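Quick one:
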Amino acid sequence: MYWQYQLRKIILGFLGFFNVANIASAQETSKEFWPEIDIWLRVSPSWRFSSYIPLSTNIETKYREGSLVLQADYAWGKVGRLRQTRLLDENRAESLNSNMVRSGYLTGHSLADNGVTYSENTFYAEFHLRIPLKRQFLISHRFRNDFRWLGYENEFSTRLRYRLMIEKELRAKKVSFVPYFSAEPYYDSRYATINRVRLIGGTSVDWSPRYALEGNFTYQHDTRSSVTNLYALNLILHLYFETGKAKPNQPK
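Output:
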């Protein structure tokens, strides 16, 4: 109950802040559509490789960007009380690991102009800490460090990101739903300040060991961008694969 009360205070605080920021800001607002395909390959109960192919389109100007993400993660550590659940990026309910590390590479650029407007190459590292709450809620802390090379001049910068997320699995017969909400501030070394905060709310729907659909709504406030307020609809198709050594621990 205490955790739920504190989380409610955090969410209401973020929403209140951005409501004031929206009213006060007279700068640019953008509405975008973000379709994406995520491919997951589990090679053991702990190791997994994945690839993301996200696109973004400005609904009004039709400006587009595309990216390719390659990453690997390793999970370990059981929670205090044995618990089985499906996480946001999982295709089935399994015993919950409390820790995960992930590293990856992202390359992206603007489309239709050969990356003149935007180009980026980024290596990143993440640490995830998962804490189960009462009533089957799960809180996840993600700490991420980005090492970025931007533009044709490959300007180097770093970015520190912390994401707080709450999620919970709901089941209806053989269909699994994982609604979630997250808040994530960004610290950018180019400006030596927290210039961006992103709020995301959505759900993942799983009806097959091979497929899942995810939809969310994103609000992003950036004080150092020409687009101060960004609103985006994100639709993701997850495709899951596994090797023979990746034997799931199915709930009874």
